[in-house]
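Researcher: Here's my situation. A collaborator sent me these components and asked whether they could plausibly form a single complex. I don't have experimental data yet, so a predicted model of the whole assembly would be a useful starting point for our discussion.
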Amino acid sequence: MINLTRIFLFVFLFHCGVLEAQNKDSTLIARIYKEALTSDYAYKNLEYLCKNLSGRLSGSPQAAASVEWTKQIMVQLGADTVYLQQTEVPHWVRGEKETARIVSQIYGTTSVNICALGGSVGTGKVGISGEAVEVTDITQLRDLGEPVIKGKIVFFNRPVDFSFMNTFKSYGSAVDQRISGPAEAAKLGAIGVVVRSVTTALDTIPHTGITRFDNVVTNIPAVAISTLDADRLSEQLKGDPQIRFYFRTTSKWLENEISYNVVGEIKGTDFPEVYLTIGGHLDSWDLGEGAHDDGAGCIQALEVLRLYRALDIKPRHTIRFVMFMDEEIAQSGANTYAQLAENRDEKHFLAIESDRGGFTPFGFSIDASQEVLNEIEKIKEYFEPYGADKFNIGFSGVDIYKLKQRGAITVGLIADSQRYFDYHHSAKDTFDKVNKRELQSGSGAIAGFVYLMDKYTPGFKSR
Amino acid sequence: MINLTRIFLFVFLFHCGVLEAQNKDSTLIARIYKEALTSDYAYKNLEYLCKNLSGRLSGSPQAAASVEWTKQIMVQLGADTVYLQQTEVPHWVRGEKETARIVSQIYGTTSVNICALGGSVGTGKVGISGEAVEVTDITQLRDLGEPVIKGKIVFFNRPVDFSFMNTFKSYGSAVDQRISGPAEAAKLGAIGVVVRSVTTALDTIPHTGITRFDNVVTNIPAVAISTLDADRLSEQLKGDPQIRFYFRTTSKWLENEISYNVVGEIKGTDFPEVYLTIGGHLDSWDLGEGAHDDGAGCIQALEVLRLYRALDIKPRHTIRFVMFMDEEIAQSGANTYAQLAENRDEKHFLAIESDRGGFTPFGFSIDASQEVLNEIEKIKEYFEPYGADKFNIGFSGVDIYKLKQRGAITVGLIADSQRYFDYHHSAKDTFDKVNKRELQSGSGAIAGFVYLMDKYTPGFKSR
């Protein structure tokens, strides 16, 4: 009987202990969210970044200035250590505002909206002109082959597939035309490429993004055309297959530049030599303000630093807040960060990135095994009251996925994707498209997730 | 042995049957979403409604025209029956553009942005002026009492509580000042009331909404002031308690008007006498275009009709698509609909309303017992791929909740709430604030939910 009573007592007390700990944790998560949702600090930081340091493409003066600015913010927020990690970055410049025209004997001449694709070379000052050949995909391009393509301007016009609820899948359904299309067309002798903007929007704004030649073929001029103008071009081609397309770009590659990742640390109390990375990428395309891509992610990382200080949370592992440089072109910042971690044989247990826009957070995309996910899902319930309780296995983020090699569980914040590709890589990615509360709740989700992982992860069996 | 084999076979075949049915259902849900996400029809309808029939307050010409327009849409979409339900609606008009000034001996005179609250009377052509008394809530107002309040202008200045993730709770934390504040102030002899706009935005735009006097007290002029102007007034009051507030409104009540609910039906194949209602409210406040509140909900209901026809879905129960009139002032359309249902002893098994903005849908707020919810949750898994899988017990919608008395399960579509109260009841509630895909996915969620409920609900034990 005595034994049984003891066992009951033990179970009871243990149960109470667990409940009390859960209670404390949910109270802390509530405090984190409250602090995030009631402070304008992050939103005002994003406004500053967007309005004063817009178009932060790697190698640009704005990118250099944003390095300095975020470093100062980290110092002001009281990080234990703040430093720069040098990295050599590519430097591509757009040059003058691009121009383009559809020239038809039937329909006359129509000006259309284009922008040079990142990494493409310019046409020269007089521009280029050629017959336009419309294709749906790279397979069709190859089927037409050199006899048809040589000397022409290839027009990739496959829209994104709108039927996915997740617009990253829509984007993925068409982005090969932009990334590989120009190089594939160049191989067949095309003189230029026009790609339908890879966007969910139907309007007159072109969307840029990287196109890759990778030195396997001569770089040729390549541009994105707005979706409405792509529809127009396609329509005119139906009535007049002899249409000529003219465009002029002055984009070019300059010498590489020296740039930096910005890193701030809060030293861990129990495991100072084990790292947890919270990041976003500081560079952005040059056409907009880089508000959603990825000013929001950077500002959210800085906000987590502020939340930790405001609520006096002391992490057990060392947290690194990292503003990665050059995600858009060559991921040189991410590569440098991963290389340094390897050189120094650093232990990384977690890395999280916000790079899907500053929209309402839905949960976490976790690049780990089902076994690890099952462990992590123990903290899922804490996010139910905030709607950030989708814990899926999936890709994390371009700047952090290589940390898997250092043992890290890498995680991407999942945000509502419906609007992202309306703005992405275009002049529309501006501060006014970011809702304060959506931005704030993303910071709350990251801070809460990191807090719980930092506290409980050491018990995860699979590590 | 033979018996056992038979049992196994039966179980196996039954299992296959269930799996096949589930498979068919998820295929149909996928077709519904695909059709919703790839058609511009609903979005263009919303644009038409917003741009041509903005400010559809009950009794207004725009409300009358929108009745006619939605009726025609229902006919075009091929509803089996389309008809109007007559209802007598209140008719309140704003009159001329309101003006207001803070007049201080110390700070000078400052113009501020206000709008008359719905249901309030005007000040007369010369306006009114009085000492401003700032209060946080109705309790504080009563504590000050008649000696302090009589002859003054009461300034309710409690902001919404931003710490809730669900902004309907934020709204609920402050809206009593607008609904009951003016009447309570009038009881104590106030000559006018200024209420801080009940919004999550910090800007210069005032937000209207109903204020209720209910004939228990003389109606006095009452206005909403923009949040930035409320901050300014409060700040100046700290430095100069003698401040006078001046405002001028010419709003008034006119005679009631005859208006209508618009109803379209698809006749049920199995239970034509049992009804399923899909609704939104056609009226809106006069200041904006009524895009999110509740143009989006109306257009989504119409889109469900289109989806049913496009996919040739034949409902077992009769579906009614209802554009309710006068949600904003007196709910006369909703009352008429419920009263007619009672008079005719109609059987209603489900009613669903979208009136929380055309934002990304998260799931369904179901006004039913836990037992009924448990049954309904059997269809929850179908919505997981689309992120609309939150099935909560909660309030449904202002226009449909009375149908509970007819036996209906009433349901509200839950949408992302972060932006709603930035726009709500203000000049900012315009078409450009609605994202096409968010609107479309709401239609998909409603159509999918209705399809599954229509198909399986008869088996729910609790009905």
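Model: Some features of this prediction you could bring to your collaborator: The two ends of chain A are 40 Å apart (CA to CA). The longest strand of chain A covers residues 252-266.
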